């Protein structure tokens, strides 16, 4: 009985604590910075924030509720759907033009519960770590709504919504970017639930019927309307740090038969290099306590999950980070083994 009371008390705390949407601070969140930076920021449904977005769409409410706020929700209410879609189309054409003469494109993707100012610190560290030629290399800083809370009891509550948000950010946001890039060497570097954003961009995610229905009714977004990943002749390498995903994320469900099968990845995906770390306190928490209530995160925790996936995806391998307890993005990219991973994929780094 005590265990049940504690469980319900914990759930009460998780629900009650303040959770907010992760939104841009800049009025022009989808912009270009010198010498070779593309900033890309999408909301919970993968829509790109337009210029001066607060003027038209307003500040999001303090509630991080899934139906509280989204660009398409407000655009629909104001009759601005075509305007929002037009901005995204124009933006993708601008990205296509900017990277046209480049050889490599590095795309950084953060995890859940990560405010943009903290994320940018990690992004800048990685940008300076990589040995880049500004004339031949481009860096895309990709931001998505992984929600945010400062209360330690709210992490699991954030996780429930962030799992779906990450898939939407991948299918509608990151995939849109990838479809704008042709014949390049693309390196996707993700952290935590950012691995789901990447995987969802490269394959089709499976959404529950209730989520799909709610997203259509409340946000005017059809989860089945995402454009397919274009075969643009790119060479894609994925480096996933502390990937908070599991076997199920690589599976798709046949809605007719109700059976699952491993998804097919684009032939453009040449390598997937992940970390495993069974001392990562965050991944351990999700694999252990409440693991039956939360979507699996054991790929970044257990080597045997990666070994199972290698049977279906021979392009996958791992580097063992066991011994490091932190789940923080900044700690993973500052671990010397991160440089080893980059070098293993033929990516030169600065000392």
UniProtKB/TrEMBL annotation:
Entry-linked InterPro entries: AB_hydrolase_fold, DUF900_hydrolase
Indicate whether Ribonucleoprotein appears among the record's keywords. no
Its protein name is: Alpha/beta hydrolase
What Pfam family is a match, any one? Answer: DUF900
- Keywords, in A-Z order: Signal
Coiled-coil portions: none
Q: Which domain of life is it from?
A: Bacteria
- Leader sequence range is 1-22
């Amino acid at each position: 009985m005590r265990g049940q009371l504690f469980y319900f008390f914990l759930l009460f705390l998780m629900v009650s604590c303040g959770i907010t949407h992760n939104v841009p601070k800049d009025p022009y969140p989808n912009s270009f910075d010198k010498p070779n930076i593309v900033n890309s920021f999408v909301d919970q449904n993968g829509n790109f924030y337009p210029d001066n977005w607060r003027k038209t769409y307003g500040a999001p409410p303090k509630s991080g509720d899934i139906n509280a706020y989204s660009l398409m929700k407000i655009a629909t209410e104001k009759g601005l759907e075509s305007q929002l879609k037009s901005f995204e189309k124009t933006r993708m054409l601008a990205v296509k033009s900017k990277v046209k003469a480049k050889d490599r494109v590095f795309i950084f993707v953060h995890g859940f519960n990560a405010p943009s100012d903290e994320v940018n610190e990690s992004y800048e560290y990685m940008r300076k770590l990589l040995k880049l030629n500004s004339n031949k290399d481009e860096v895309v800083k990709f931001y998505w709504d992984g929600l945010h809370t400062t209360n330690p009891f709210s992490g699991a509550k954030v996780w429930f919504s962030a799992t779906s948000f990450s898939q939407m950010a991948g299918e509608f946001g990151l995939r849109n970017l990838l479809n704008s890039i042709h014949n390049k060497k693309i390196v996707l570097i993700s952290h935590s639930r950012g691995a789901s954003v990447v995987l969802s961009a490269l394959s089709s995610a499976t959404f529950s019927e209730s989520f799909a229905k709610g997203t259509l009714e409340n946000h005017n977004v059809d989860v089945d309307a995402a454009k397919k990943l274009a075969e643009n002749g790119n060479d894609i390498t994925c480096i996933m740090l502390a990937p908070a995903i599991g076997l199920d994320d690589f599976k798709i469900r046949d809605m007719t038969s109700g059976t699952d099968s491993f998804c097919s990845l684009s032939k453009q995906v040449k390598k997937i290099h992940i970390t495993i770390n069974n001392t990562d306190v965050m991944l351990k928490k999700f694999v252990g306590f409440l693991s039956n209530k939360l979507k699996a995160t054991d790929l970044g925790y257990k080597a045997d999950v990666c070994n199972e996936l290698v049977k279906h995806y021979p392009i996958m391998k791992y580097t063992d980070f066991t011994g490091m307890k932190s789940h923080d993005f900044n700690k993973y990219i500052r671990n010397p083994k991160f440089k080893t991973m980059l070098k293993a994929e033929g990516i030169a780094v600065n000392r």
